Amino acid sequence: MKKKQRKVRLIRTAIQLGFFIFYPALFSTAFAGVKSIFQALAAHQPITWNSFLDVTGVLLVITILFGRHFCGYACAFGSLGDAMYELTLFIRQKIFHKKGRHGYPEKVVRALQKVKYILLAFLLLSILTGWYAKLQGMSPWDVFSMLTAGKLPNASYKIGIVLLILILIGMCTQERFFCQFLCPMGAVFAMMPILPTALFHRNRGKCPAKCGLCKKRCPAHLEIDGDTPLSGECICCHACEVTCPRKNIQIGPVKDRETEKK
After folding, report:
1. pTM of structure
2. 239 lies in a domain?
């Protein structure tokens, strides 16, 4: 099982690294598409299709058909979060000799997951009211986009820089801190009607008694197919699938092999 976990981790890391190097602005581009719709509404102008909406539309369709694999594999900000968390985990294990993965209690995670919806509503409302322009220089993902483009943000972005630093600290304390709690585009993805064939399921009849490894390993504390109302919170990191000791988790409905033999 450890070999499979290592293989999946290496494949995922390679894909993340590729997107981080060649397409680091996908997240901000996708949200720019959403922003352009509300900017048109605020200006009482017709909504016109643009290149930002091309990216937004493609990612929304992919999310509906396949789940939030963009978040788990392609988002540069999410990949940065994974790197920060794994670095912290390595330091904890090698220097402080602390075993296991660290993070927040389930109740805290559930409460903080709602923050991204509040943030999304705040940003969209600020666009509609024309107040969004006053937020210039406060966006941590604008600072991140500049850094990945090889540009240093000037003094007007000092609030955005501070917020980015605070987010980086948060990434060290909880797996996928930004994606789960603060990402406005993640809130949009989480509200999408994801097809059942894109969700993770398990055959509970084959689960060992009092196992729960999949939920313990899931950064969102999901019960896999038991958390249907929260399925949008799944970032498709495949951690549950590779952790299962009986290979009992897969995307799409799980078929009982014993039934199939009959």
Report:
1. 0.91
2. yes
- What is the span of the domain harbouring residue 73? 2-247
Structurally, how many domains does the chain consist of?
Answer: 1
Distance CA 133, CA 162 (A): 19
Domain contains 41? yes
pLDDT at 261 over 80: no
For the chain, give the longest Cα–Cα distance: 70
Residue 42 amino acid letter: A
Quick: pLDDT tens for 109-162.
999 999 999 999 999 999 999 999 888 899 998 999 999 989 999 999 999 999
Q: Nearest 5°: phi and psi at 16? A: -60, -45
CB of 174 within 8 A of CB of 180?
A: yes
pLDDT at 101 over 60: yes
- Could you give the 3-state DSSP secondary structure of residue 200? strand
Count of C-beta atoms within a 10 Å radius of residue 239: 24
Alpha-carbon dihedral sign for residues 138, 149, 64, 204: negative
Contact residues for 192 (Cβ-Cβ < 8 A; gap 6+): 60, 63, 64, 232
